[in-house]
Amino acid sequence: MRGLPMPRGPWRRVAFGVGLLVLLPPAVGLAAFLWMRAQQPQTHGQVSIPGRGAPADIVRDAHGVVTIFAANERDAYRALGYAHAQDRLWQMETMRRAGAGRLAELIGTKYGDFPLRSDRLMRTLGVYRAAQAMAATLSSEARTAFDAYAEGVNAYLETRPEALPVEFQLLRHTPEPWTIADSLVWAKLMGLQLSANYRDELFRSRVLERLSPQQVDDLFPPDAPGAPTTLASELHGMDLQDTVRRTLAALPTAGVDTASNEWVLTGARTTTGKPIIANDPHLGLDAPILWYLARIVTPDFTISGATVPGVPLTILGHNAKVAWGFTTTHSDTQDLFVEKPDPQDPSRYLTPEGSQPFEARGETIAVAGEASQTLTVRSTRHGPVISDLDAGGGTASGTALALSFPGLAEDDSSAEALYRLNHAENAEAVRNALRLHVAPQQNVVYADVGGEVGFITPGRVPIRPKGDGRVPVPGWTGEYDWTGFLPYYALPQSVNPPSGQFVNANNAVIGRDYPYRLATEWPDPSRAKRIVEMLGTGRHSVEDVARQQMDIVSLPARDLLPELLKYPMPPGRAGDAAALLRGWDGRMDRNRPEPLIFTAWMRELVRAVFADELGADFAAYWDLRAEALRHVIAERPEWCDDTKTPQKENCGEIIGRSLEAAVALLSDRQGSDPRDWRWGDDHKAALTHKMLGRLPLVGGTADLSVGTDGDFFTVNRGTTAIRDAANPFAHVHGAGLRAVYDLSDLSNSRFIIATGQSGNIWSRHWGDLVELWRDGGSLRLAGDRGTLVEAGAEVLTLTPRNTGTAEK
């Protein structure tokens, strides 16, 4: 999970532009380079900071992993804010600006319009306003944590002895003081990113213009029963397609899909006699990675795990009493409502009770190097109007699309839920804490040291009296209006399963007997099937579970490939490639050619089957669609006919031609002999600093990319960007964090992140964890102060200037 993804294109152009600024005469340039490299945060000694309270120690081990020893929680959260700012200030700055709709103010549009597109969307949705409203839902205890954290960040900004990070220097930018809303906006960004069903609704309504409802269902073969997708009869004859086209064109580029793995075993299924939890969230890969490992120790409270710079709470971890993990439910909690303007007054829209005025407000977006832009934001009773994004500063006329989403509600108490989860004493307290979670809906596995395990999917799920949520619906009739949300007791949940395990990898969380609709389709179930296969019915150790997280068997490669190889294969290099695949076990090993051949073949086969029917919309659909291909070959072979040719092709012909196309592509990339091809040469984890990776002098230092195992379907997730013509096999999405929790001894829990603790490209902790992450290694977050210091840890003591009153 993370904030809004930033595409590489705009940052590449920004980097080129600012790179010109550092092309100084060699002597001056070298001096500037050495000076910036010397600007490292202070990690030992003592710093006097503003405020009251007792001293707190920030202890950094050999990997830069932070343990904070403090007299109370308030001092600890302040120290965490200080440590985050020391190591990840630029990451924090871009996160809060993305949420506030202020990226263009920092970056401008000279090198691409993504910052302005993103700002317009964030302002339209009112994301930062929602974050400010969320502050009112915090209890006094939770607010103290957020207040103290902000104090810590601001204490660093005031007391830092070193220069600001190089990104700030290049853009000549000084960060503003940190606020509570700057921390809370991350929750809003995550809610949007992990619940982005509205984009799917727009896509379906677009392709229904040229395809039948049955064909649209063929594109997304359902795991669970659902009615065929079709537009409501009330929308026929309306100019909806033009509105949808304009809205899609105005949206910022979407990031890669979101996914994660989690499973929990009861004590009866482990060698320790106590539960074990595995969790690895899958998000877009960046350098630095989203996650930051930290531990807090006070006399009354201990917590360890993965934090996010900018946020005081532990997102995934354990508190010495309970441990938990998250995956995204992929439920449908967003709807687009088509609003019909009042024909007598376009400043109003129709409702079942008659005409009502659009709520409107003005938003001024500052743009670096250019005049500011004004955006008029409209809202209806259903939510913000997203079809105004391309209105050029005014309001759009005609059909309007309004977004309903619980994550934009003013009473979103998700931050309070996480605070209470951090402090849960046992399994029952976990369930009580999660009652307050609103968005995004998540699948949570949890266990306590007493041995109880559970699974629950907290979050607000709308109750729809009509429609299935897959396409936009009429907003003026009232028939499709949500009538409330599923009660907490009705959400999928269970404890202590007879099987001794709960497993989720974004697969369906409910069966056909569940009486409510969470979603009409679910992500590919291959990872979940493989985890269940590995677990079997035996008992497992912590080491077993850690190895299972690194599994690289691709079930589609193992199961779909024999179906493809039944058909006659072309001669020549394509035949040689097919011969390699016939003896392959489906392991996506970075040192083998078969993973590359199989992935390229699937890439070309998806294009050959679906591109002719989808036309301009194919780019948004293009992915490794194993289930859709299996469905077509077995049940709907008419898709194999190329509608652009006069003859009628069959699936055998298309499968053979696709392999030839794949082999031609790979020959251009890796040479003529398939035996010499290597998956890892093209499948490299995209661990590159978006801005600094293209700069002269420092670009190599800013690039941590490394060849990796896995693919889209493996437990060790290695999703590729197959629609990227230049780098279709780059590893752009995967497990930036892995954790295994040992409830028999939580100090024996294992953690790893993909890059390093520091966001400073000259720090020794910039990329020191990359190879350990790639190869399945891990760290333990444990040890008292004396033990850590004896092992060589550095200690920085933060001493408040007013130590007379320690705050609780």
Strand content: 15-25%
What is the strand tally? 29
Q: How do the strands line up in the largest sheet?
A: 1-29-2-3-6-7-8
Overall shape: it is globular
Fold-level CATH name of the domain at 555-587 and 593-677: Penicillin amidase (Acylase) alpha subunit, N-terminal domain
Ends distance:
31 Å
C-alpha-based Rg, rounded: 26 Å
Q: Mean pLDDT, nearest integer?
A: 92
Q: Low-confidence parts, pLDDT < 50 over ≥5 residues? A: 1-18, 20-25, 224-230
CATH superfamily of the domain at 555-587 and 593-677: Aminohydrolase, alpha-helical knob region
Portion in helices: 25-40%
Give the class from helix and strand content and strand pairing.
alpha+beta
Q: Given this structure, which CATH class of the domain at 555-587 and 593-677 is correct?
A: Mainly Alpha
Second CATH tier, the architecture of the domain at 555-587 and 593-677: Orthogonal Bundle
Sheet bearing the most strands, described? 7 strands, mixed
Q: In DSSP terms, counting alpha (H) and pi (I) runs of 4 or more, how many helices?
A: 26
3D structure, described in words:
The protein has 808 residues and is α+β, with helices and mostly antiparallel strands. The protein has a domain at 555-587 and 593-677: Aminohydrolase, alpha-helical knob region (Penicillin amidase (Acylase) alpha subunit, N-terminal domain, Orthogonal Bundle), CATH 1.10.1400.10. Helix content is 34%, strand content 18%. It contains 26 helices and 29 strands. The strands form seven sheets. The protein has a seven-stranded mixed β-sheet. The longest helix has 28 residues, at 73-100. The radius of gyration is 26 Å and the shape is globular.
